[in-house]
């Protein structure tokens, strides 16, 4: 019996261990590439790509030397499968795509190398249908675009123009031009700043409508692809006319240090392809290398280290608000703000994913002291708390005056002409005494009939007061 029991126990343990291994999904090693299911149709020449609800959508492009396509495909990373969707109303390439509020906007392009389109068409993944919006004001080609806060910024490419599409009003406006006209470059939004990168690297700030040059990529190539992951930018592949070279390079750009780092090369050299981030993984899709490609490869970026705790947190109280400021943390993709009404906590999180190094808390009550800490976050996790900073919001002092009329239990009315600061002091005493704290009497200057005296003071007893009135007025100059 013992030997049988041991055998059964060993068998059970083996089954448990085997099923446990089966239940754990395989995780790709960092800084490596994995081949994924190819698209159903080959395509290149800067087709549109967008992500929605964890799935990838590709739009249009070209699959021969002269034929634009209208095909739309959906990729499910979980099942590693592609599905055909409703074609675009117009076959075209190159096009740009951006996701806004559950719908994918597809912009511009041209047909079979001919005239350039100004069309803006909107794809609804929920219904697999298309609609149209206000066209681009001017036909552009080899431009780049990116979405920031519900607006789409369209850059160049043959011209210096910067156009902005507002999805709420369905209107276009124009912003500060690029330093130079550019083609075959890409744009990516990182924390509200737009990096436009191809053969060079120029930063656009939508808030200030200004341009700033940044460190150029290590290789000068056209028809590259650009995306982001974990707060860093990734530049993939491209084409060098010198030597007729199709590239498989991958370079990582750190916006915090303005530096580039070479990472593991793609498995397939390509140009005129697209790249997109889904759940922290980077997908290189399609493109061209002697022929148009269906191939799809996934890159697993290095996981960043957990950020350091923010320092130099300060808090400044205002009228019904507290302004916070702290020093930036290298590698942070955002900040969390936490608050307590007790020194040392415990703290409640009041804001997450704050992009900058300032925050204004307006959910406060004047006269209450608040204690704050801030943490930095990135894909590596959340930092420890910053130093604690406190502030007490206060209403601004009034420059007006008021007549305070106090009615006593014996029927006598006492009238005082006071500054609002004096009135507020009286009402604070009254409220505190009503709550059971503070002295039983309050002293006020009596300006009436001083006679030979330097001053006269009235001592008002709390429990002798029936009521009081405050009539504020503005003194004449």
UniProtKB/TrEMBL annotation:
SMART domains for the chain: FN3, Kelch
The protein's name: Fibronectin type-III domain-containing protein
Keyword Signal: yes
Record PROSITE patterns: FN3 (PS50853)
Signal peptide: 1-23
Cited Pfam families: Kelch_1, Kelch_KLHDC2_KLHL20_DRC7
The species this protein was found in: Paenibacillus contaminans
Coiled-coil segments on the chain, per record: none
Gene3D superfamilies in the record: Immunoglobulins, Kelch-type beta propeller
Keyword Metal-binding found: no
Matches recorded under SUPFAM superfamilies: Fibronectin type III, Galactose oxidase, central domain
InterPro entries registered for this protein in UniProt: FN3_dom, FN3_sf, Gal_Oxase/kelch_b-propeller, Ig-like_fold, Kelch-typ_b-propeller, Kelch_1
Keyword annotations of the record: Kelch repeat, Repeat, Signal
Domain (Fibronectin type-III) ranges: 306-396
Sequence intervals crossing the membrane: none
